[in-house]
Each structure stands twice: as C-alpha cells, then as structure tokens.
Design brief:
This protein is of the alpha/beta class. The protein is built from 31 helices and 22 strands. It catalyses: ATP + H2O = ADP + phosphate + H(+).
C-alpha cells in the first residue's frame, strides 16, 4: 500500500482500520501523501528495487526530521509513527512490514546539525528499522525499545535516506560507519552512500517541495489535524500564516503552483537576510572533530597537555618564549588543537587543561607561557566594563555578631603571592564590593551567606580567599596523588579523590564555568581542580579525579553518585563547602542530595566552613540556608537582595503570543548584531524558537535539559566563541552563565511565578550588563504575564527604567522619582537589625537580614596569618572610592555594533 495523493498538500488521515486504538499509539500523526509526478516516479523506482518476497505489504514511511524535538520526543515520535505505519498487529489480521523506509532528511537545523543530533537521528532510524523488521506479533511498544543493535535482520529491508546537499554530514556519517552496510549482517541497506547521493540529486527539488509542505508537523501534533497545520491565513499585516509555527517563505523553497493547487499565498519574505544585516553566517558544525571517539580525543588531549606544559620553567620562561618566536608559539597553539581556554574543539569541558603539579617544583610551580595564554589570555573572557564604578555605588549591609572590615585592594588582602599574580593575570585590578567583604570573612574562617547582584564577581569572592589560604598548606593537607608525567588511566594505582574544597551548583554549565575560574586561580600551585556533572563521561571524570583532586566542583546528582562510591570520592579531608546559587539549591528538588552532600563526609565536626552565594535570596531560602551554617556566620549583601543592576537597560514591550516569533526576528533585525540570549519557559519553546530563527538564517543555537550533554556543551561553546551569537535557553540552563559581551537578553517568555518569577527574571537579565558592562534586556509582555506585573514594575522603578503605559496601573500610588528606597519588596523584608557599612551615602536599605543584633565587634581584616606567612602586611581599611580601574571600553553594543562586520 502506498499512501499517495496529490500535490495540494493534503495531510490525509491514516485509514481508520490502521489507526491504533490504544495508548501509547493513540497519536494524531497522519500521513503526508505526495502525488507530484516526479516524486511518484522516483518512488516507483524505489519500489521496483529487489526485495524479499516475504514482505507482506510494501509501503512507505516518510519521516520528516526537520522537526525540532528533544531526543526523547524524537524517539517517541519515531516509535509511534513506526507503530502506526506497521499497523497494530493486535487489531489487524496481517503484520504490516515495510518494504521500504524512506527517511527524508533535508534541512540542517540546530539540533540536527549538531554532531550528536546526527548520531541520534541515525540511531533512531536504525532502531526504528530494527523494530519494524523484527517486531514479534506480541511485542508491545515499550518492550520493543529494548531491541538493540547487533541483531541480524530476518529479512532484507530497503533503507533510504533522502536529503539535500546542504546536509553532507549524512553521507559522511554513512561513509564513516561501514558496519552499517550489509556485510555486517545488520540488515540490508540497499543504498550505500553513492546511491544516496544519486538519489539525492534525483529528488532534491521534490524533497524541497515536500519540505515546504511538511514543516508544520509540530503544530499538528497539538492541533489534532494536519490540515490545520498548514498555513491557511496569509495574515497580511504580519506577512505570516496564522499558525506561529509556519515557516517563512524565505525558507520554504517555494510553494507548488500546479494548476490544481490552491496553495496559500506565500507570506512576505523579510526584506533583508540576517547576513545582509550584519549577522555572521549560520554555523556549520565541524563533524570531523565532533565525531571523534573518546579514545581519539584522549590521545589528542595527552599530546596537547604535553605541548602546553614543557620546558624548564619559570626562570627560562621569558627567554624561551622569545626564542620560540611568534612562529613557534603559533605552532604550539596549533598543537592545542585550536583550543580556547584550554579546551579543544570536540572535547568535554571536564577534560580542559589544568596545571599539573610535579613534586620537584618546590613551593611554587614554574610558568608555562602557552598554558598561561590558554588560561588567562582568551579574548573571550568577560572584561570589566566602562560602568565598573557603578558597582561601588551600592550599599553593603552586613549582619551578625561579627563585623568585617573590607579590603579595598587585592594587594592589601594578605593573598598568597601566587594568587596575587593570578589575580593580576586575570585582569582584576580592584576587588568588587562583595569581594572586599568576602575575602576577610573567609580568611577569618567564618561561615558566610553572601548576596550580590548578578555579574558582580561572587565566584572570585570565594575562590580567591579559599585557594589563597590553602596554597600555603596544600602539601600538608592534600591527598597523595600520582606523578602526572607517569599517570596512565587504568594502569596507575587507583587514588581516590579527597578534595579540600567542594563547590556545589545547580547547573552543569555553571559547574564547568566555575571549574574554568578555578583552573585560572590554581595556576602554578599544587591545588588541582576537577569538575563532575551529570551527562558528562563518567569514566573520564573518574580518571580526572584519580590524577588528584583538591578542588571539586560538581552538580548534586553526580556528586551524590560519586560520594556513594567511596573508593572514588571521599569528603573526609574537606575544609570548605561552597553552595553557589544557594537559593536555588536549598529551595529546589535537591533537598535529599544537598542533605547527603552536607553530611557526606566523615570529617571532624567543625572542620568545614560553609559558604553560600547567590544574587537572589528570598527570605524563605535564607532561613533554610541559615540552618546549615554556624551560629556566628556572617551575612553580607550588596544592594537590595535580588535587585537588578542599573547598568542593564530594561525594556518591556507588549507582544501578543501569536506574534512573538515575528517580533523576535524583527527585534534581532532592528538592532546591530550582538551576542544575544533569548529565554523561553519550556524546552519545546526553545526548540521551536531555535528552529524558527535558524530557518531564517539567524546564527543561533539552543540549550535545554533534554539535550545531550555533548549538544549542551557544544551550544555554549559556539555561543561563547561567537560562532552562534544567538542562544535560546530555558532559564535553569543559563543560571550563572558568564559570557563575554552578551549585549542583549530577550525574555521571549517572561518567567511567570511558576517559572521562578522575579528572581528568575533577575538572573536572566543578569547575563548581560556584567561587571561594569552595559546591557539591554527586552521582555515580551502580554496579558498572560499579569501575575508578574506588580513586582516587575517595582523592579523597573528601582533602577530608573521607564514603565510602559500598559503597565502604568501597577505603579505604586505613593511612588515618586527619588523614592526608590521606599519601594517594598516582599523578599527583602526582615525584621532584624543590620548595619549598612559600605559604599556611598544613601541610607535606605537597612534591615534586610534580621536576626541577631549587630555588635560593634570589628574584626580586623586578615593579617597574613593562619600559617600562610607570605609577608604581606595586614590590609588597612582603605578609603572608600578606590577607582574601579580604567574603563575597558566595553560599552553595551561595543565593537559588535558595526553592521556587516560583527565581532564576537
Ligand atoms: N575584581 C574583578 N575585576 C574585574 N573582573 C572581575 C572581578 N571579579 C570578577 N570579575 C569577572 O566578572 C565576571 C562576573 O563574575 P561572576 O561570574 O563571578 O559573577 P557572579 O556575581 O557570580 O554572577 P551571577 O550571579 O550571575 O552568577 C567574571 O567574568 C569574572 O572573571
């Protein structure tokens, strides 16, 4: 049975008798039938190919892989379509097998374009194929999923891939996987690559026609009828079909205009392409790199590490570098495989290069110029911006029995000399306010809750003092470790990880980012940082731990997994535990994990200092957090808890739901191209928006929790490097991300209270306007966001942002310019006594933390003490208003502004 029909693009319902009756087969999938003569001829050609007579029903299955589903949904879709296609043997007299399965793979869109996307799709296809050919009469759909590769096909199957030339990776994939060919016994694939290619040429035009008709399957999924998924409304005002998912004409490859066709008029094409507007070309993936096996990656890694860390060390470094000359240095960088920040293309973030300590180094390790360049020299690091001084205007409030004297200069902080050098190498001239208070607090050994705006340097606020303090003691405290020169995974004796510092954070991306920062500050020291996170390669993470691990950064699930394997990880030596994004950690689903981690060591009571950090800290989270800390813990906040920064311009525009995608595209095309993050509230929306923009040639990528870890890391890397300067993300996956030159954040969906509300809003927009840079945040608002409106308006007023007319009813009645301090924010209110201690004048933010009355027991700033006798004098409380360093000229749109030549 061939489900053929006419070119008028009807989506024809599956005949009643083969419609599945029960879940999970109760799908709304329908058949796309095409009657174009050219396509039909090609189909006939396919059908005429030899096949086993044992096939009961020759039929076609057309899979449209242009859809952007998560891996799970893709699998479900495939399974369910296959089930539909073969018929339900419980309902039908015969088993329907396919003679031919035709996979239409025509468009490289983001998730498809990703290397793992390719693998996933082909794996899905092959699994589907296995299943179709193999399905026992009694097998249920769920059982069938357990069918694995390696089983031989009972009958030959024709397996076709149709794809257009813009997706050469399919050919590459088949070329690189000869085991898929018949000789392996894994079925008969009658179209070796050459056939695929010739088929491709025959059919490409028609495939594009199919494409133009089938793009909207996703909408049909929801609407119960494929017909409604087709554009029926030309909606002249927008130039788009009523269905927001309908692809634009620019992408569609043209509608068929045959005589019997009543195809809708194509929507108006955008007048300019993104590239004409100055956006970089959309990014093609480097499949060669990403298809490397873990073994190949590990080998390249070993070579690179050796290249980065050779030479006699410090004293010769300058001379060696000079001798190397520009050419030599370049050659060495090339040996790092085009690595940026010590991570090569295609490598896992957990395998990024770290400084490998050798026993013969004495107290301080030698310099390695190439490694130094990788760690500190990247142009992709966030640099302090022109508005750095604005950070100092914020009031600092501290609370608790202890009073901390801030340090105004790194030189006065009693840092280990190597740390001081690393701080300079990182380009930090002066500490930010949160650092001014955290450094002495941590040096003095207090537990701490610290709250400061997004992008204000909280990571360094804990890393610098902790690592500096440990540097002098590492030899005494650290666990034994193998000689890095001799270490061989699987052969060297197993050494368990016994970190001194544990940093826990909610997202994988944040974990790897903190790891990057730790790699910098551990440079030339014995302290070895490692990162472990879900989705990453377990074996490789264990290998890293076995090389030595003094500073461990991790996400809760993977941490608990390793803690439960005491031969891999023990917390018995732990001295510091840091919980980053602490409000998220204490409030979310991690209660069990956090409990296990906090009590997971057999350390002596009181040995561990607990430190909690976040930019937002609702009262309930603060109370929960405080339960984990010592009674005399210090609490520090910079500005109002959860406040946004006035370096971020916040625009709110009214956009109806159905117009959002068009509005988004128009917005991106109305501003100079610049690195942009677009936030949505669901994984599905992330997929859809990404598809929409990508099909309009916007250089975008996306990330959410259903993506494989490979895809996630690759997306972030592409965004960080500017290859894909538009990132679509769900909120959680982007918490804490610190990416150079993010000039624009767009809330495509505002975070309603069930999506994190105003705290989530603060974190999202805080991806721009970091560390003194200016940024723009645009939020799409419509009536569905009314719940958020009152607090959103106060947030706007607090930093002097204009309130749009449609939100003016939410302006508090007693509001007047200059009364920012009187705005009431529920989550900031407490009833205690606190002392405002820092920064410029304007009192008005007192009493945020409550609890014990403040005493005047000034704690002097740290002398070079605690065994770290590094000879630096104890810092004096410097006068306020140390300049914040020269502006680095990193203005909101900065150098990106130039149309036609955006630099990322
Ligand atoms: N003293 C400093 N001078 C210059 N740059 C700094 C300084 N301290 C930190 N930075 C840089 O500022 C950027 C933001 O820091 P970080 O990511 O720690 O912010 P954060 O406060 O943790 O933000 P979020 O709440 O969004 O996670 C980083 O790129 C960091 O390297």
């Amino acid at each position: 049975m061939l489900f053929g029909i006419n070119i008028r693009a009807n989506w024809v319902e599956l005949p009643k008798e083969v419609q599945p009756k029960q879940q999970p087969l109760d799908m709304r999938a329908k058949w796309l039938n095409i009657n174009s003569s050219a396509v039909d001829a090609a189909f006939e050609e396919l059908l005429s190919r030899p096949s086993s007579s044992s096939w009961i029903v020759p039929s076609f299955l057309v899979f449209d892989f242009t859809l952007r589903f998560s891996l799970l949904r893709r699998l479900n879709l495939i399974w369910q379509l296959v089930a539909l296609a073969v018929g339900d043997t419980r309902q039908l007299p015969n088993t329907y097998h396919f003679k031919t399965i035709l996979f239409v793979d025509f468009k490289e869109s983001r998730s498809h374009g990703q290397p793992n996307g390719v693998d996933c799709r082909l794996v899905c296809m092959l699994e589907a194929l296995c299943w179709v050919s193999f399905r026992p009469r009694t097998a249920s759909l769920s059982n069938s999923r357990s069918i694995k590769f390696g089983r031989t096909f009972p009958q030959p199957t024709n397996f076709f891939l149709l794809h257009n030339p813009s997706t050469p990776h399919v050919d590459q994939y088949v070329d690189q996987h000869p085991h898929l060919l018949p000789s392996s016994g894994l079925g008969t694939i009658l179209n070796p690559p050459s056939t695929i290619r010739s088929l491709d040429h025959q059919l490409v035009v028609d495939v594009q026609t199919i494409l133009s008709l089938s793009v909207n399957m996703a909408a049909a999924w929801e609407t119960n009828t494929m017909a409604s998924a087709l554009p029926t409304d030309t909606n002249a005002s927008l130039g788009w079909g009523a269905s927001t998912n309908v692809a634009p004409a620019a992408d569609a490859g043209g509608w068929d205009t045959g005589a019997d066709t009543t195809a809708p008029a194509a929507p108006a094409a955008p007048t300019k392409t993104p590239q004409e507007h100055g956006w970089v070309a959309k990014h093609n993936y480097d499949y060669e790199s990403y298809n490397k096996s873990n073994k190949e990656i590990a080998e390249a890694h070993a070579v690179a590490q050796a290249a980065a860390q050779t030479g006699d060390g410090d004293e010769n470094a300058e001379g060696a570098e000079a001798a190397q000359g520009a050419e030599g240095a370049q050659a060495n960088i090339n040996e790092l495989g085009g690595a940026v920040g010590g991570i090569r293309v295609g490598d896992w973030s957990c395998n990024a290069i770290v400084y490998e300590w050798k026993d013969e180094y004495g107290d301080v390790g030698p310099k390695f110029p190439l490694l130094e360049q990788q760690l500190f020299g990247s142009e992709f690091h966030v640099k302090a911006g022109i508005q750095f001084s604005a950070v100092t205007e914020l009031n600092v409030t501290q609370e608790g029995n202890i009073r901390i004297n801030p340090v105004r200069k790194f030189e006065d902080a009693g840092l280990h000399p190597v740390m001081l050098e690393n701080v300079k190498l990182a380009g930090y001239d002066v500490p930010t306010p949160i650092q001014q208070y955290c450094l002495p607090t941590i040096f003095k050994g207090h537990d701490l809750i610290a709250c400061a705006q997004t992008g204000s340097g909280k990571t360094a606020a804990f890393l610098i003092p902790i690592l500096s303090k440990l540097m002098g003691k590492a030899k005494k405290l650290a666990a034994p470790r193998p000689n890095p020169a001799l270490f061989q995974p699987g052969i060297s004796p197993n050494v368990k990880a016994e970190p001194l510092v544990l940093i826990v954070c909610p997202s994988r991306e944040l974990a790897t980012q903190i790891f990057d920062e730790a790699r910098r500050f551990c440079y030339r020291t014995m302290l070895r940082p490692c990162v472990i996170y879900g989705g990453g390669p377990v074996a490789e993470q264990i290998t890293q731990l076995q090389k030595g691990c003094d500073v461990l950064i991790g996400t809760p699930g993977r941490l608990c997994d390793f803690i439960n394997r005491p031969h891999i990880l023990t917390l018995r030596r732990l001295r510091y535990m840091v919980i980053d994004e602490a409000d998220e950690m204490v409030q979310s689903d991690w209660e069990q994990e956090l409990k296990q981690i906090m009590s997971g060591g057999d350390q002596e009571e009181g040995n561990i200092k607990y430190l909690m950090f976040s930019a937002t800290f609702p009262k309930v989270a603060r109370e929960l957090a405080a339960q984990h800390l010592a009674n005399d813990h210090v609490r520090i906040k910079v500005g109002r808890i959860g406040s946004t920064h006035k370096n971020i311009q916040q625009d709110v525009v009214f956009v109806e739901a159905q117009s959002k995608k068009q509005a988004l595209f128009d917005l991106l095309m109305s501003l100079p191209p610049a690195r942009t993050i677009i936030f949505v509230n669901s994984k599905r929306a992330a997929d859809e928006v990404d598809d929409f923009l990508f099909n309009l040639n916007m250089p975008c990528t996306s990330i959410h929790s259903d993506r494989t870890q490979r895809e996630r890391e690759d997306s972030i890397r592409a965004f960080r490097l500017g290859k894909a300067p538009v990132l679509i993300a769900t909120g959680v996956s982007a918490r804490g991300l610190d990416i150079h030159n993010v000039a624009h954040v767009i809330n495509f969906d505002l975070p309603s209270p069930q999506y994190g509300g105003i705290e989530e809003y603060t974190h999202r927009i805080g991806r721009t306007g970091r560390i003194g840079n200016r940024g723009l945040a645009t939020s799409f608002y419509n009536d569905r966001d009314a719940d958020l409106a009152p607090i959103l308006v106060k947030t706007l007023l607090e930093t002097g942002q204009p309130v749009p007319d449609f939100l003016s009813e939410h302006i508090p009645t007693n509001w007047a310019p200059g009364k920012e301090a009187e705005l009431e924010f529920e989550n900031d209110s407490e009833d205690g006594d606190a002392e405002e201690v820092g920064a410029s004048g304007d009192a008005g933010d007192v009493g945020a933390w409550g609890a014990a009355p403040a005493t005047d027991a000034n704690v002097s700033a740290p002398a070079a003490s605690g065994g770290d006798t590094w000879g630096t004098p104890a810092p004096k409380a410097a006068a306020q208003g140390d300049g914040w360093g020269a502006p680095v000229g990193n203005d909101a749109w900065g150098s990106n502004a130039a149309a036609g030549g955006a630099t990322w």
